[in-house]
Amino acid sequence: MDREQALEIVKPQLTEHRYVHTIGVMETAIRLAEKYGADRKKAEMAAIFHDYAKFRPKEEMRQVIVDQKMPAILLEFNSELWHAPVGAFLAEKEAGIKDGEILDAIRFHTSGRVGMTLLDKIIYLADYIEPGRHFPGVDEVRDLAEKDLDIALTQSMKNTILFLIKKNQQVFPDTFNAYNSIVKNSGG
After folding, report:
1. Does the reported pTM lie above 0.85?
2. 20 to 30 A from 163, CA-CA: which of 22, 81, 154, 170?
3. Burial of 69 per CB tally in 10 Å (0-12, 13-18, 19+)
């Protein structure tokens, strides 16, 4: 599937604002893939489909999680997390994406995970730093992404964790574990 076909599948599933965001994530992911030596085409596809399920009804997403026997812990956390694993499932089922690396990058783009692949890291970061994002700390992470992918990833996760803590919201365990793993493996 080429870029135009993928965008044609995704566009009806998104609001105009989210479609513009998706284009920004795609362009950022391609740039990061080229910079850090990841597969450009896989980065492009994962970025295009990363929010594929974002606007599906919560009940539909809940049912997919249950029916597909996804980790039940997902249902104990904010439904904002659901669109990533559900999106990976629907991208495979509805759009025919079979590449496991692309599907994992979609699946873990909101939470991260221990042992993130280069593609996982690129999609997570591209979603965080795309040009349409404006919030405290994003410019610092954009600068870090030009120097070191893992340091940028660590800072973005730290920002997210602190943001959730300040709002008195739960932090998904995979995010804590991903953060700890990256810090441990980067030596600091």
Report:
1. yes
2. 22
3. exposed
C-beta separation of 137 from 159 below 8 A: yes
Q: Which residues of 6-36 are buried (b: 16+ CB within 10 A; e: fewer)?
A: bbebbeebbeeebbebbbbbbebbbbbbeeb
Residue of 153, 123, 125 lying closest to 43 (CA atoms): 123
Neighbours of 89 (CB within 10 A): 20
3 state DSSP class of 108: coil
Instruction: State the alpha helices, DSSP H only, in the chain.
Output: 3-10, 16-36, 40-49, 58-67, 83-95, 100-107, 118-129, 138-145, 149-166, 173-186
CB neighbour list of residue 95: distance below 8 Å, 6 or more residues apart: 1, 6, 9, 49, 52
Dmax over CA atoms of the chain, in Å, equals 44
Token representation of residue 162 = 């602190």
User: Tens digit of pLDDT for each residue in 51-90?
Assistant: 999 999 999 999 999 999 999 999 999 999 999 999 999 9
